[in-house]
Amino acid sequence: MIRSANLGFPRIGARRELKRAVEAYWTGDIDVASLTATGAELRARHWKLQRDAGIEVIPSNDFSFYDQVLDMSVTIGCIPPRFRVGAAGADLDVYFAMARGTDDAPAMEMTKWFDTNYHYIVPEFLREQEFTLQSTKAVDEFLEAKSLGFVTRPVLLGPVTYLSLGKSKDAGLDSLSLLDRLLPVYKSLIDKLHAAGARWIQIDEPILALDLNDRQCDALRSAYRLLNASGADIMLATYFESLRDNLGVAVSLQTRGLHIDLVRGREQLDRTLAVLADSATSGQDTVLSLGVVDGRNIWRSDLDNCLTVVEKAARALGTDRIEIAPSCSLIHVPVDLQVEQTLDAELKSWMAFGKQKLEEIAALSRAMQDGRDAAADAFAASSEAARSRHASPRIHNDGVKTRVAGIKQADLLRRSDFQTRRVAQHRRMTLPEFPTTTIGSFPQTEKVRKARAAFRRGDMDRGDYEAFLEDEIKAAVEKQEALGLDVLVHGEFERNDMVEYFGEQLDGFAITKHGWVQSYGSRYVKPPVVFGDVSRPGPMTVKWSAYAQSVTDRPMKGMLTGPVTILQWSFVRNDQPRMETCRQIALAIRDEVLDLEKADIRAIQIDEPALREGLPLRMNDRNPWLRQAVDCFRLAAAGVCDDTQIHSHMCYSEFNDIMASIVALDADVISIENSRSDMELLSAFVDFRYPNEIGPGLWDIHSPRVPSVDEMKKLLCEAASVISRDKLWVNPDCGLKTRGWPEVERSISNMVAAAVSLRA
Questions:
Q1: Pick from 322, 250, 247: nearest CA to 292
Q2: Distance CA 170, CA 176 (A)
Q3: Rounded distance, CA 84 to CA 103, Å?
Q4: Residue 703 C-beta-side C-alpha neighbours within 13 Å
Q5: Which of 3, 134, 207, 712 could make an S-S bridge to 698, C-beta 3.0–4.6 Å?
Q6: What is the C-alpha to C-alpha distance for residues 740 and 536, in angstroms, rounded to an integer?
Q7: How far is Cα 558 from Cα 153, in angstroms, rounded to an integer?
């Protein structure tokens, strides 16, 4: 019969239990036994939750203390030599050092997981790379589940995806050339899982969602010829996009099961069914896993529509060859809507978090097994939610729609070219060579967090809270002046998150209290929900930027999040094209930009770290999306006068293939993540002859280590050797919200010293 399945569950806990435990371990407040006990408790709780929801195929090894790609690196012994590994293998301290760095060993690079806001730790490969099975985590967690009465399907990241997502540290090394060394370790791990009782193993190869070259296709075929011989049945999982021309490759791997994403790639169903039906006549009975429930957004599924898809597949292949599943792992959605108390009943009725999505999958399975009446309540609730949402007056704002329809090409253009603007800006802001600044936020101390929480609870009145914020801003300005920074920021002490803060003040957004998802490691974010047309009721940031400027003679930079990033880092309505929503957000940000300019803010930074992240995975789809994304940024930024300097910031992405679009943004200054990738990202700006000013980040703010003056001076010299000195800015990689003041002050002091040294 049809089975209900899940590909992965959020590991963080409904109330962020994992975050608290991991950070307590880092600070020494708990020991390793307490941390591992928290992990075990969360795993047991989540296995039970899935079974109670009606899921028959429950995953294991989807839990991680930091990142699943890092887990695989440790499992197969792919540990860079700079991290010391004891005779017993890598322990948790080595594991966390790889992710966060130490005083002696810089952290491994981190970048976005496909087109999501989840970050993974990038594997590093050397020419003499060897792989050994150093961790049996996957086996241990399978046996742990088994001891609790749960028969699970272990999840592994596929070998070809793993190698394709890693980076070779030796010039000229093709990471796929290491496949023959890697496969025996994978085979050994799968054999151990099978021996432990795992009949099925899920192997994720999301690389199949990309444009593959012949080398990757050959690597996939070579890999699965060996892995299929393990005796375990393999569910090959693909997601984030339709297979398209890779369908033939995926089927040729002859795994026992194939998962396809029918939320991102509904059009692939007919062709997949035709191919698998033909293969059935030759003796192959591939199980098809249907990803019909959206694993990346929080809207309730249209169960009638989903059931139509499942029934079609069952007619073609038979019910014994069908699984019903989410489109991808549920790590991209919050855990449980039931704990959410801040949303009104109508909004909640339109939504489904992780637990509720499992219940939707189980309802579809019951309907297929026992008839639609067996899940009548779930189907009725789904239909009512769709009707209510479509009819709600909260969704539509005719004034917003009219304003978007009236956007003209002239609205996207600055008044003068960059060279003309540059002269005006340098006249208005007298800056030295290698001007220094930061990306925006300063440490959110315990005192700041407590004050914000007290204000939200009503324990601190608005007057006292605003006086507190003024004190924090004034102190931050004084510290920046003392450290010698040239362009200052107000510190963003009033902001909880760079997207949520704006969502709280824009119409058409809703804010959750427990809607947390993992961004990287212990960094969780709470994406706002865009449920309707977006507009700005009033100024959002002007008050605090203007106050900060009033207490210093140095230029103060206004800090905004760009429209594309707000779109990408929110849960966005799915009843209109995403770029229509992006244009609405851009108009709201444009209004804020113009109000900042009126308040005499001379530099305005519009962050777009998600520009690359939102890029479609297939090359042929990218240009239309990029044109629209660039237009949205320009719509937000282009209304200012020539002497107002527009900055933008991007981080943890590959830029080489979108340089033309970055230039088209026409930002006066762009700052980029750079230090964690050994200045590699800077090469894209060099090769493309980036025409405007640029600030390549000089220290990795996601690591607690303080880089020395010489270290930052070396990076700055490398930048100055390929980019004109008069176009270089000096700044960290990203905002400093998550760091502590002592390390921030030492790092900024070293950064300023490096800049002063080069001026001399």
A1: 322
A2: 13
A3: 13
A4: 27
A5: 712
A6: 33
A7: 50
Least reliable range by pLDDT among 323-332, 341-350, 589-598? 341-350
Which residue in the block uniquely carries the two structure tokens 């707000």? 566
Token pair for residue 158? 């596929």
Cα angle 92-73-33, degrees, rounded to a multiple of 5: 15
Is there a contact between 508 and 532 (Cβ–Cβ < 8 Å)?
yes
With 90 as the cut, is the pLDDT of residue 325 above it? yes
Closest CA to 549 of 588, 603, 593: 603
Strands (E), 23-134: 58-60, 110-112, 119-121, 124-125
Model confidence at 118: pLDDT above 60:
yes
Give 648's strand partners.
670
434 three-class SS:
coil
How far does Cα 526 stand from its chain's mean position? Answer: 12
301 contact partners, CB below 8 Å, separation of at least 6? 292, 293, 294, 352, 357, 360, 382
3-state secondary structure of 736: coil
* Token pair recorded at residue 479: 């510290």
Phi, psi angle pair for 128, to nearest 5°: -95, 20
Strand partners, 289: 259, 323
Q: Which tokens hold the place of 322?
A: 């069908």
Segments of 426-528 assigned E as strands: 507-510, 517-520, 523-525
Mean pLDDT of all residues belonging to the chain: 94
User: Can you count the helices (H) and strands (E) in the chain?
Assistant: 27, 22
| Nearest one of 290, 378, 364 to 328, comparing CA atoms | 290
Only one residue has tokens 């307490």, namely: 34
Report the distance separating Cα 38 and Cα 522, nearest Å.
14
Residue of 147, 236, 150 lying closest to 190 (CA atoms): 236
Q: Is the dihedral of CA 357, 361, 367, 370 positive or negative?
A: negative
pLDDT in tens, 630-688: 999 999 999 999 999 999 998 756 677 788 898 999 999 998 877 655 556 667 767 77
At a CB cut-off of 8 Å and minimum separation 6, what does 344 contact?
none
pLDDT at position 651: 74
Can you list the positions of beta strands (E) in 521-624?
Answer: 523-525, 529-535, 557-561, 571-572, 603-607
Rounded Cα distance between 540 and 731, Å, is 25
Contact 146, 103 (CB under 8 A): no
pLDDT digits (tens, 9 = 90+) for 166-181: 999 999 999 999 999 9
- Cβ-contact 130, 181 below 8 angstroms: yes
* 535 bridge partner residues: 507
Closest by Cα among 523, 447, 470, 436 to 758: 436
How far is 506 from 535, CA to CA, in rounded Å? 6
Q: Report the half-sphere exposure of 708 (CA within 13 A, side-chain side).
A: 5
Rounded to whole angstroms, how far apart are CA atoms 448 and 307? 49
> Which DSSP symbol is given to 157?
E
Sign of CA dihedral 284, 287, 289, 290: positive
**CB of 607 closer than 8 Å to CB of 233:** no
CB 356 within 8 A of CB 381: no
Contact (Cβ atoms closer than 8 angstroms) between residue 239 and residue 326: no
pTM for the model: 0.91
DSSP category for residue 86? B
User: Is residue 719 a contact partner of residue 713, using CB atoms and an 8 Å limit?
Assistant: no
Question: If 0-12 CB within 10 Å is exposed, 13-18 middle and 19+ buried, where does residue 540 land?
Answer: buried
Question: Burial, 167: exposed, middle or buried (Cβ in 10 Å; 0-12, 13-18, 19+)?
Answer: middle
Catalytic (active-site) positions: 702
Residues 498, 96 contacting (CB under 8 angstroms):
no
Instruction: Express each pLDDT in 229-268 by its tens digit.
Output: 988 999 999 999 999 999 999 999 999 999 999 999 999 9
589 — phi, psi (to 5°)? Answer: -70, -35
